[in-house]
Automatic annotation (TrEMBL), chain A:
This protein's name: Mitochondrial inner membrane protease subunit 2
Keyword Isomerase: no
GO cellular-component term (any): mitochondrial inner membrane peptidase complex
Stored InterPro entries: IMP2, LexA/Signal_pep-like_sf, Pept_S26A_signal_pept_1, Peptidase_S26
Cellular compartments annotated: Mitochondrion inner membrane
Residue span, Peptidase S26 domain: 8-104, 109-148
Membrane topology: Single-pass membrane protein
Statement: the UniProt record of this protein carries the keyword Iron-sulfur: no
UniProtKB keywords: Hydrolase, Membrane, Mitochondrion, Mitochondrion inner membrane, Protease, Transmembrane, Transmembrane helix
Lineage: Eukaryota, Viridiplantae, Streptophyta, Embryophyta, Tracheophyta
Residue ranges crossing the lipid bilayer per the database entry: none
Organism: Hibiscus syriacus (Rose of Sharon)
Family named by the database record: Belongs to the peptidase S26 family. IMP2 subfamily.
Automatic annotation (TrEMBL), chain B:
SUPFAM superfamilies according to UniProt: LexA/Signal peptidase
Active site: 37, 81
PANTHER family, alphabetized: MITOCHONDRIAL INNER MEMBRANE PROTEASE SUBUNIT 1 (PTHR12383:SF16), PROTEASE FAMILY S26 MITOCHONDRIAL INNER MEMBRANE PROTEASE-RELATED (PTHR12383)
An annotated GO BP: protein processing involved in protein targeting to mitochondrion
GO CC aspect terms: mitochondrial inner membrane peptidase complex
One Pfam family here: Peptidase_S26
Family: Belongs to the peptidase S26 family. IMP1 subfamily.
An annotated Gene Ontology molecular function: serine-type endopeptidase activity
Protein name: Mitochondrial inner membrane protease subunit 1-like isoform X2
Compartments it resides in: Mitochondrion inner membrane
Chief site of localization: mitochondrion
Keyword Cell wall biogenesis/degradation: no
Keywords per UniProt: Hydrolase, Membrane, Mitochondrion, Mitochondrion inner membrane
Length: 168, 143
């Protein structure tokens, strides 16, 4: 009589907490670890080869922007890779639907429902220059703040690209 | 004892609120109504489909399945189409080819190209015909 009901109570509490956590992280915000140097110097500015797990930036990803997909030029977003839905990437939006984006050799039109993303560190970034415009439906959230490491805590600014975009 | 009851009520109402929250999440099947692009399989007058959101995450999706996807042309819209081909020779890696059953009016991969797998939101597993009419409604399985 004693132990089973205690376990059942704990199970019920865990279930409730689980449901609340899932809902909050899906609808409002979650915390994500940023790997790699494609967004240097915005994230992971130390380009040492041994980026161990503790020194990687942790950021706050807000999901409220997904209600109407109201995204702006210069927003840093998390999106599922078009070539592998299990991978997520972090890049900055350079072009929105209808824009003409200037790349090195070409001027590319961003089709409706898509966006053009690029990493801040152009030299080592796999982005829309390789896999093309990304459907907005793959965007999973917008990064608003850095939460770790403590000396770099702060908001992530919207940096509009200069001379790269001719809006429609 | 009273506290117990209140606590249980609070827990139940929080869980219910989370479960029925308006945004689609991955653990909850949803119902929706459709346009003419899937005739004659799914009709426009009162058919409602139940979409489960687990199969595509577990990789259990194959050609012939009816899926609900987020439109690549407008992220605020969702489409219900059939998976005609999975990745392979003609379809690039990480993508699927979708088509509506009513080819004349359907806007699908023939217009916007292969669809990234990440845009798939769920698989249709059941349809309810004449959902509005409670008396004559019946449930049929989607093959």
């Amino acid at each position: 009589m004693g132990t089973p009901s205690v376990l059942w109570n704990i199970a019920k509490k865990c279930f409730t907490v689980g449901v609340i956590t899932l809902t909050v992280s899906d609808l409002f915000a979650s915390i994500v670890q940023v790997r790699g140097t494609s967004m240097c110097p915005t994230f992971n500015p130390k380009t040492n080869s041994l980026l161990d797990s503790l020194s990687e930036d942790r950021v706050l990803v807000e999901k409220l922007c997904l209600r109407n997909y109201k995204l702006a030029h210069g927003d840093v977003v998390v999106f599922s890779s078009p070539n592998n839905h299990k991978e997520k990437h972090v890049k900055r939006i350079v072009g929105l639907p209808g824009d003409w984006v200037r790349t090195i050799y070409d001027v590319v039109h961003v089709p409706e429902g898509h966006c053009w993303v690029e990493g801040d560190n152009s030299a080592s970034s796999l982005d829309s220059r390789s896999f093309g415009p990304v459907p907005l439906g793959l965007v999973k959230g917008r990064i608003t703040h850095i939460l770790w490491p403590p000396h770099r805590v702060g908001s992530v600014d919207r940096k509009s690209p200069q001379n790269r975009v001719c809006a429609s | 004892m009273e506290n117990h009851g209140r606590e249980a009520m609070a827990r139940a109402s929080i869980s219910f609120a989370c479960y029925t929250s308006p945004m689609p999440t991955y653990y909850r099947p949803t119902m929706s109504v459709l346009g003419p692009s899937m005739l004659p399989t799914l009709s426009i007058t009162g058919d409602v489909v139940l979409v489960e959101r687990l199969s595509h995450r577990l990789g259990k999706l194959g050609s012939g399945d009816l899926v609900r996807v987020r439109s690549p042309l407008d992220p605020n819209k969702t489409l219900t189409k059939r998976v005609v081909a999975m990745e392979g020779d003609k379809v690039p890696k990480g993508h699927v080819w979708i088509q509506g059953d009513n080819l004349y009016v359907s806007r699908d991969s023939r217009h916007f190209g292969p669809l990234p797998y990440g845009l798939i939101e769920g698989k249709v597993f059941m349809g309810v015909s004449n959902a509005k009419s409670i008396v004559s409604g019946f449930v049929h399985r989607m093959s």
